[in-house]
């Protein structure tokens, strides 16, 4: 039932987004990739995914801080494939700093990429979903959409905002065949977390293995990283008929972090 549908996954040149985009392609959906990186590497990724799965895979270089580029990305995807059926808002960045020293431009950038881009993609993609009376909007929030940690003011504020936006959109589309869900992962081993491990190791003068055990996974009671595959499988569940009533939810997938 997903075969032939189209998915747009923001921030899918790396990490979680790439894993989710791959899972959707394997399930038979055409995929629009988005994100930054080396042009040659992205082309290799795009062509490889298309060849491996047999679906059509395109790439948009739209910058998630630019509303005009976001709107154009959605319009281009719709005119190429006729629809966006599954929208995964995944692009996100992190910056760690005490609030009084938090660089203003980092605050603005994180709010734009991690929160406002979700508003702009949803705003642009929803009319098409409503016309077809089917859609899945999946916003990759974070455990930090539900609880806070110090020194992550912009990230925590943005991710709480994503959960609020998700609930609002879910209510607005409740009587249609569209759902809107936030996924709230704990720590997943991706380039975004590797950077934090490196920074913390430098800041604390500790080996990376110790930083992972004592700092990064301190909040995650099961003491293991969430696997990208687990997130990809959850997205496929939400897109399946079994996911039809899961809407407005903030789904924790965090080894019991937010159960505390
Ligand atoms: P990542 O750094 O591996 O990937 C981020 C992606 O976003 C990349 O493709 C990058 O090119 C893209 N991106 C960054 N800025 C962009 C911009 N301005 N325009 C377009 N694309 C842009 O990170 P990840 O760990 O895979 O994170 C993906 C999402 O998952 C983020 O929203 C993050 O907050 C969330 N998340 C991650 C974790 C974790 O532990 N890794 C936990 C919870 C939530």
Polypeptide structure, described:
- By secondary structure, the chain is α/β, with parallel strands linked by helices.
- The chain folds into 2 domains: about 5-185 and about 225-255, NAD(P)-binding Rossmann-like Domain (Rossmann fold), CATH 3.40.50; about 190-225, no CATH class.
- It has 8 helices and 7 strands; from the N terminus they run βαβαβαβαβαβαααβ.
- It has helices at about 15-25, 40-55, 65-80, 105-130, 155-170, 190-205, 210-215, 230-240, and strands at about 5-10, 30-35, 55-60, 85-90, 135-140, 180-185, 250-255.
- A 7-stranded parallel sheet has the order 3-2-1-4-5-6-7, sandwiched between helices.
- Strand 4 (about 85-90), helix 4 (about 105-130) and strand 5 (about 135-140) form a beta-alpha-beta unit.
- Helix 3 (about 65-80) runs parallel beside helix 4 and helix 6 (about 190-205) packs across helix 7 (about 210-215).
- The longest helix has 29 residues, at about 105-130.
- The radius of gyration is 18 Å and the shape is globular.
- The termini are far apart.
- The structure holds nicotinamide-adenine-dinucleotide.
- Nicotinamide-adenine-dinucleotide (NAD) binds near residues 185 and 190.
